[in-house]
Amino acid sequence: MTKNTIVENLRKQIEKFQAESKAEKVGHVIEVFDGIARVSGLSDLKASEMVTFESGATGVALNLDEDSIGVIVLDNFIHIKEGDSVAATGRILEVPVSDAQIGRVLNAIGKPIDGKGDVKATKSYPIEKVASGVMSRQGVDQPVATGIKAIDALIPIGRGQRELIIGDRQTGKTAIAIDTILNQKGQDMICVYVSIGQKDSKLRKLQTRLEEGGAMDYTVIVSAGASEPAALSYIAPYTGVSIAEYFMDQGKDVLIIYDDLSKHAVAYREISLLLRRPPGREAYPGDVFYLHSRLLERACRKNKEYGGGSITALPIIETQAGDISAYIPTNVISITDGQIFLETDLFYKGIRPAVNVGNSVSRVGSSAQIKAMKKVAGTLKLDLAQFRELEAFSQFGSDLDESTKRQLERGRRAVEVLKQPQYAPVATVKQVVTLYALVKGYLDEVPLEKIKEFEAGLADYTERNAKDFYKDVTEKKMWTDESEASLKKAIEDFKTSFK
Amino acid sequence: MATVSTKNLAQAIYESSLGKSGRELDAVVENSVRMIASRNMIGKSTDILTQLQLIMDKDTKTVRATITSSHFLSKKNTDIIEKELKKRYTAEQVELTMKEDEKLINGLRIEVGDEIIDLSLAHQIGQLQDYLLKN
């Protein structure tokens, strides 16, 4: 490009430019501390409106007081000085949304942080949005296959459901979330993983794991790290759900994971206390329930007239010493449509995933379970509960009748079957085969320590020798008498050959 | 003791001094100072005075504007500005504070409360810069 062309281009651009001179409302920083700025002036500012500081930092107005405005600063607040001018932008806080965000790691305001360059976004979604109304919704009737036997069989999750994953630290909460994302490959699901206040090393590990499993092809990661201000942790889940809504509006099914909402509540408490809002129980502000209810209410399944998309939410809550009756856990339990309760004791007993079946529930999920799974897993939850009771009772004496012994043996095998290593999701049809073998008593004579080996061999053998059954369950979601007969034969054949 | 905002205090002082002059006004001022001292709010007297000024300005329809210009403005120009401001803010009185700032390059900037009307060349150049960067 020659000098003249550059000058000519510049001239053309400048010719189109028209200077505007209009009255602007401007405020001034009264004080700034810990990511919060108190600003005077800006009398026409709206709630949640974005403002820009003289230093170039952006913020969001949270408190509109009589004489001043409480602003949370979204960038580095170190360069903001007392007396700096603050300008209103006229825009409610919004994030860029685009298909190009898939496979990327974004920060809480939607900017990429993975070093792979900018994301060109043509649209923006406000981060605070009223959830879909009653008339645009539809009942949950499609399953989300997590690939985890204990969940798919006993606590099924449907598309559009909100299922809480709750447990102490190091009990495998994130592992369930990652396995679920990994299992969505080829299931026509977009995944959004929101990391709130997590260590950067943990996020990097997770991203690498998802990349290795090919899951980044359909996943967006939104992260507000532990070293970032509380303001970013506070807005990160709303950013995540806005991105999820963008895909839902295209009629797609989206799975969103909030890891975790306990840290989100702590971040909001920090902001609220700094903004001098009155503290309530455990020093959380009065609207901490609304903080999570408005977020989780945005998960929904839309009816066909509204595009038919869905957002399934899997919020995670970390408990302290298994106390699920603390403030935030009870709030989120009451908001969600069920919970997967993970226990430290089970985890260290080697029962992994450490799901406590008795305390876990899915309130809408069973209607989203496929017929075949419903049939094999129908009584499993009750059987397991009875087994736990019998197991505790049988420890007092050795004189047990035959039927009790049988029930105990069956229970032990059920527990063994539901154990599953991490990053090894199992296809729904294979889960059905294993559970079928279990409930029909084919595993009763298999030694406990050989159950895993038997299960793996059975899945391979039946896949080759009971093709009708696999086809029926995959396509029609239920088997026929003929295909069931072929499966029975395959199981018996395999059992004879298994040593 | 219930907390009283500086705004409420200023409003009370203003209302109690309305229509008073001479000794009566002196008594109001003395009582007001006593009350401020009894509430340990002497340290906030600047805030109270600012609030009092705002209340008085609102009542007397007075607008206070700061005009920053790149060079000295003639009486003719300030009269035009005063007239325009009276019209814009439906004010009866306009109090102007004049400032000079070479950084504006040319033109002027008017500040009224939290509102700024920037008619300076420096502002327009800034707009042009943003425009060129965006396009």
Structure description:
The complex is a heterodimer of chains A (499) and B (135). By secondary structure, chain A is α/β, with parallel strands linked by helices. Chain A is 38% helix and 20% strand. Chain A contains 16 helices and 18 strands. In chain A, the strands form four sheets. Chain A has an eight-stranded mixed beta sheet, with helices on both faces. Chain A has a six-stranded antiparallel barrel with strand order 1-2-5-4-3-6. In chain A, strands 7-9 form a two-stranded antiparallel sheet. In chain A, helix 4 (200-212) links the parallel strand 13 (189-196) and strand 14 (219-224). In chain A, 44% of the residues are buried. The mean pLDDT of chain A is 92. Chain B contains five helices and four strands. A four-stranded mixed beta sheet of chain B has the order 2-1-3-4. In chain B, helix 1 runs antiparallel to helix 2 (22-38) and helix 1 (6-17) crosses helix 3 (45-59). The N and C termini of chain B lie far apart (60 Å). In chain B, 12% of the residues are buried. Classes of the chains: A alpha/beta (499), B alpha+beta (135). The A-B interface holds A 10, 13-14, 17, 19-27, 40-43, 66-67 and B 5, 7, 113-119, 123-124, 127-128, 131-132, 135. Strand 1 of chain A pairs antiparallel with strand 4 of chain B, so a sheet runs across the interface.
In short:
The complex is a heterodimer of chains A (499) and B (135). Chain A is built from 16 helices and 18 strands.
Main features:
A: 499 residues, eight-stranded mixed sheet, 16 helices, 38% helix, B: alpha+beta, four-stranded mixed sheet, 4 strands, elongated
